[in-house]
Amino acid sequence: MKKIMITLLLLVGMTTIAQRPEGKQGKGQRGAMQDFTPEQIATLHTKKLTLALDLTTAQQSKIKALALENATERKAKMEERKTKREEGDTKKPTSEERFTMQNARLDHKIAQKKKMKNILSEEQYSKWEKMQAHKNHKMRKHRKKHGAKKQAQNQKGK
After folding, report:
1. Backbone conformation region of residue 88, classed left if phi is above 0, alpha if psi is from -120 to 50, else beta
2. How far apart are CA 123 and CA 128, in angstroms?
3. pLDDT tens digit string along 20-67?
4. 3-state secondary structure of 89
5. Which of 59, 96, 109, 149 is surrounded by the most beta carbons within 10 Å?
6. Contacts of 55 (CB under 8 A, 6+ apart)
């Protein structure tokens, strides 16, 4: 009986270890994207959209330029946050700073939608919007799930 219990415990332990995400702190796909250059990210993004929306070569080049611009901007912001964190200059933004950041983010989103509407056909654009809605829904779900974990960790730390 003891041998069976030990074997069972080992099997359960091995399966839980085998299912852990790779990388430090369980980085998923987003963590792997941090290692790519903005050009590589733009290329991958363009190819994914080409597969999903059946883009023409002209559309591909326009979207790649747009994706490269976005990836470069995102990489620069990530580096800026990283240096601030390393310097220990991570203070919570004031409500006015948060408003300014959210306003800038929403303005950027509006500009992106306009650019995509100019590049894509009506059918492609509606499909792209559905893809964005699905992506946003998944992100909200992810934040809700992990937000609860963070709150529990913060409560333990206090």
Report:
1. left
2. 9
3. 555 444 445 556 677 899 999 999 999 999 999 999 999 999 999 999
4. coil
5. 59
6. 46, 49, 63, 120, 124
Side chain identity, residue 145: K
Predicted model pTM: 0.68
Q: Which long-range contacts (CB under 8 A, 24 or more apart) does 71-74 make?
A: 71/38, 71/39, 71/41, 71/42, 71/45, 72/38, 74/38
Cβ pair 116, 128 in contact under 8 A: yes
Among 104, 125, 105, residue whose Cα is nearest residue 114:
125
> From CA 95, how far away is CA 51, in angstroms rounded?
41
**Which residue's entry shows tokens 């059946």?**
54
pLDDT digits (tens, 9 = 90+) for 67-111: 999 999 999 998 988 888 888 877 888 899 999 999 999 999 999
Q: Residue 23 has which token pair?
A: 């990388």
Dig out the tokens for 147 from the structure.
């937000």
